[in-house]
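Progress report, Aim 2. The chain analyzed during this reporting quarter is listed below.
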Amino acid sequence: MPPARATPVNATAAALLGLLHDGPMTGGQLVAAAGRRFGSFFSVTRSQVYRELPVLADAGLLKLGKQGPRASQQYAITAAGRRSFKAWLAGGGGADPLRSPLVLRLLYAGSLTEKQRGELVRSSREAYAAGLEEARATARGEPDPYRKAVADFAVGHARSMLKLLDAIPTE
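Predicted structure tokens for the chain:
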């Protein structure tokens, strides 16, 4: 019998499958784990998670686990899900498209009032400064070389965004 084929998955599905390697989780737990593990470079919204979970379950990549409080549903990865995740991982590299709502907002910030522009820059700078400290702490304590490299990337990304924000003239 030939080996089972992997079902192709998108990056959001792969992100969820990767998280489920740690054990069964509910949708809410997946949203929180995604924010902690890779929120600095790959965003996954609550709506994306809840849209993707039934699709993955219908494809046999996840199985339903225990029902929790307030009708929360646990999901666990299946062998087919592990195959699909591994196929996605091995599926290639190449350049990623950058998708930054902040950079897009800055591009069109001329349409905002001076006060709105100032608030956009101030609040973004505050968020990236906090993210930089968090990324530095993660990078310092990471023993796995691949996760360390990703943590170092998060540090560099936060620094780059702060440099961009600092380049904007104050009005």
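The longest helix spans residues 114-140. The chain has a mean pLDDT of 92. These observations will guide the mutagenesis work planned for the next reporting period.
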